[in-house]
Automatic annotation (TrEMBL):
SUPFAM superfamilies: Adenine nucleotide alpha hydrolases-like, Class I glutamine amidotransferase-like, GMP synthetase C-terminal dimerisation domain. PANTHER family: GMP SYNTHASE [GLUTAMINE-HYDROLYZING] (PTHR11922:SF2), GMP SYNTHASE-RELATED (PTHR11922). Catalyzes the synthesis of GMP from XMP. This is GMP synthase [glutamine-hydrolyzing]. NCBIfam families: guaA_Cterm, guaA_Nterm, PRK00074.1. It catalyses: XMP + L-glutamine + ATP + H2O = GMP + L-glutamate + AMP + diphosphate + 2 H(+). Gene3D superfamilies: 3.30.300.10, 3.40.50.880, HUPs. Keywords: ATP-binding, Glutamine amidotransferase, GMP biosynthesis, Ligase, Nucleotide-binding, Purine biosynthesis. Its EC number is 6.3.5.2. Residues 194-386 form the GMPS ATP-PPase domain. The active site is at C78, H167, E169. Pfam families: GATase, GMP_synt_C, NAD_synthase.
Length: 511
C-alpha cells in the first residue's frame, strides 16, 4: 500500500482517490505520524502531500527524517517537494512570483515519471504555491520548469525520490493521472491489487473473524446507499445474525419506507424490521418551529425507538454503522478534527449507551468506492444513485411548524420533483433536488377566483461533497413542467419558485 503523509493540503483526499483508482490501496496519515507506526504499516511507497505552509515558517509541519532512510520510493507534491528539498540540503525560498492556477510546464530532462508523454514538450499543469526551490539538493536533477519557476520538478533516480511543484492529482493538470501511474508502476514497481471485488471478499472474511458465532448485530437502515451496503455486506458475512431496523419517523418521502423494505427484502432476503413510529415522532414535533429543535427531537426519538427494538433482540453485541473514510480522516487530521461538525450523520451516543461494539465495514472507503461496491453487490440503481436525504427528513423542509396537511403538500410536491428529474434524466446529473414548503401564503387567481395559498420552493443543486454547491442549470422547460404539475396537481399550492443561491453563503437545505 501507499501511505500519503498529509501536510494539510485541500487535495490530499484526491491523491488517495487517484491512487486507489489505479488499483493500489492508499491511506492518509498525518505528517506527525511516528516512524515506528509508519514502519508498522509496511508501506511500499510514500507520497508527501502539499500544504498551505512555508517551509521557512516557524510552525511549518515537519516529518520524522527517518522516513527518508527507509529506502522507499517517495513522491513529494508541492509542499512535500519543498520540504524534501529543504531537508536534503537544497535552497527553498518564498517565491517572488506566487503561482496559482494554470501554468505551462516544460520538461527539462527525461525521467520515469514522464514515460509515455514522449511526443510532448510540456504540459498544462495546476499550481498553487508560495515557496519555490532555488537550488536542488545534491544528487537531485532538475526535471522540469515553468515560466516563473526554474525548478518545478526534481528527482533522484538512485533513491527513487521525486518532487513535483504542481499537483498531478487535480483534473486540471494535463496527464496528471499518467504521472501518478508512472510513479506507482514505473518508479515504485507496484502491482495493482485493490479492487472492489477484492474489498468485498476481504471485508466479508474480516467480519466473520470479528464477530463470534453466538453474537448478533443490529443495523439501522435508512434506504440510503451507505447503510444499505453495510447491511448487505454483513448479511453476506453472517446471514440472519444481522438484524436490520428501519424506523419510519413520519417525515420520510412518499412511500419511501415501503419501497426500501420491498426492494431490500426482495433482492437480499434481509432480516428487516419495519418500525412504524410516525405517530410518536409527529406528536413530539407538534408545534415545533425551530430547526435545531426539530433535529434534536428526531435524533433523540430515533435513538429511543431504535434502542427499544434492538434490546428486544437477544444477544445483540454489535452495532453496524456506515462510517466512511473521509469521516475517519477528518478525525485524525493533523490539523485536529475539522471545524465542520457533522454530528447529524451518525447515531451519536448510541453505541456507548447500549454498550455495543462497533462494526464499520466502510471505514476505508470513499463514497465513489461505496457506489462501486453497491453495484458489484447487485444493489438496485434506485438506491445506488439516490440523492442524499437528511436524517430529519421532510421535517426541515416544511419550514416552520409541521402539520399532517403541510407534510402532505410537501410530499406530493416533492414526488413530482423526483419524478420529473427521473423522467428528464436529470436525477443523476444533479447532487440533490427537492421541494421546500414555505411558511407563507400568497395571492393567486384560479378560474375567476382569487386564491390565497402556499408557496413551494425548488432546490436543485450541483455539488461534489455538499461542502460547496451551486444551483443546477436545469432547462427552463423542465422547470416549467415541474411548476405546472405542482400547481395543478397539489391542492393548496398556487406558486412555485426556484432557488438560485449558491453555497456558501446559502446552504443546501433551507433549515
Ligand atoms: P446544508 O444544508 O448544510 O446541507 O448545506 C449539506 C448536506 O447535508 C444534508 N443535511 C443533513 N443531513 N441531517 C442529515 O443527515 C441533517 O440535519 C442535515 N442537514 C443537512 C443536506 O441534505 C445536504 O446533503
Amino acid at each position: 500500500k501507499v501511505i500519503i503523509l498529509d501536510f494539510g493540503s485541500q487535495y490530499t483526499q484526491l491523491i488517495a482517490r487517484r491512487i486507489r483508482e489505479s488499483g493500489i490501496y492508499s491511506e492518509i496519515h498525518p505528517c506527525t505520524v511516528s516512524l515506528e507506526d509508519l514502519k508498522a504499516m509496511q508501506p511500499s511507497a510514500l507520497v508527501l502531500s502539499g500544504g498551505p505552509s512555508s517551509v521557512a515558517g516557524e510552525e511549518s509541519p515537519q516529518v520524522d527524517q527517518g522516513v527518508f532512510q527507509l529506502g522507499l520510493p517517495i513522491l513529494g507534491i508541492c509542499y512535500g517537494m519543498q520540504l524534501m528539498a529543504h531537508l536534503f540540503g537544497g535552497q527553498v525560498e518564498p517565491a517572488r512570483n506566487r503561482e496559482y492556477g494554470r501554468a505551462s510546464f516544460e520538461f527539462v530532462s527525461d525521467c520515469p515519471l514522464w514515460e509515455g508523454l514522449g511526443d510532448k514538450d510540456g504540459l498544462t499543469v495546476w499550481m498553487s504555491h508560495g515557496d519555490t526551490v532555488l537550488t536542488p539538493p545534491p544528487g537531485f536533477e532538475v526535471l522540469g520548469r515553468t515560466s516563473s519557476v526554474e525548478i518545478a520538478a526534481v528527482g533522484d533516480s538512485q533513491q527513487k525520490i521525486y518532487g513535483l511543484q504542481f499537483h498531478p492529482e487535480v483534473a486540471h493538470t494535463e496527464e496528471g493521472y499518467r504521472i501518478l501511474h508512472n510513479f506507482l508502476f514505473k518508479v515504485a514497481g507496484l502491482v495493482p491489487d485493490w479492487s472492489m471485488t477484492s474489498f468485498i471478499q476481504d471485508c466479508i472474511q474480516e467480519i466473520r473473524e470479528m464477530i463470534p458465532d453466538d453474537e448478533q448485530v443490529v443495523c439501522g437502515l435508512s434506504g440510503g446507499i451507505d447503510s444499505t451496503v453495510v447491511a448487505v455486506l454483513l448479511h453476506k458475512a453472517i446471514g440472519k445474525r444481522l438484524h436490520c431496523i428501519l424506523v419510519d419517523n413520519g417525515v420520510l418521502r412518499h412511500n419511501e419506507a415501503l419501497e426500501v423494505v420491498e426492494s431490500l427484502t426482495k433482492h437480499f432476503d434481509l432480516n428487516l424490521k419495519h418500525v412504524e413510529a410516525q405517530d410518536l415522532f409527529l406528536s413530539r414535533l407538534h408545534g415545533v418551529k425551530d430547526p435545531e429543535e426539530k433535529r434534536k427531537i428526531i435524533g433523540h426519538t430515533f435513538i429511543e425507538v431504535f434502542e427499544k427494538e434492538a434490546k428486544s433482540i437477544p444477544d445483540v453485541k454489535w452495532l453496524a454503522q456506515g462510517t466512511l473514510y473521509p469521516d475517519v480522516i477528518e478525525s485524525v487530521s493533523f490539523k485536529g478534527p475539522s471545524a465542520v461538525i457533522k454530528s447529524h450523520h451518525n447515531v451519536g451516543g448510541l453505541p456507548e449507551k447500549m454498550d455495543l461494539k462497533l462494526v464499520e465495514p466502510l471505514r476505508e472507503l470513499f463514497k465513489d468506492e461505496v457506489r462501486k461496491v453497491a453495484v458489484e453487490l447487485g444493489i438496485p440503481d434506485t438506491i445506488v444513485w439516490r440523492h442524499p436525504f437528511p436524517g430529519p427528513g421532510l421535517a426541515i423542509r416544511v419550514i416552520g411548524t409541521i402539520t399532517p396537511e403541510r407534510l402532505e403538500i410537501l410530499r406530493k410536491s416533492d414526488r413530482i420533483v423526483q419524478n420529473e428529474l427521473f423522467a428528464s434524466n436529470w436525477y443523476t446529473r444533479v447532487w440533490q433536488g427537492f421541494a421546500v414548503l414555505l411558511p407563507l401564503k400568497t395571492v393567486g387567481v384560479m378560474g375567476d377566483e382569487r386564491t390565497y395559498e402556499h408557496v413551494v420552493a425548488l432546490r436543485i443543486v450541483d455539488s461534489i461533497d455538499a461542502m460547496t454547491a451551486d444551483w443546477s442549470r436545469i432547462p427552463p422547460e423542465i422547470l416549467a413542467r415541474i411548476s405546472n404539475r405542482i400547481i395543478n396537481e397539489v391542492q393548496g399550492v398556487n406558486r412555485v419558485v426556484f432557488d438560485i443561491s449558491s453555497k456558501p453563503p446559502s446552504t443546501i437545505e433551507w433549515e
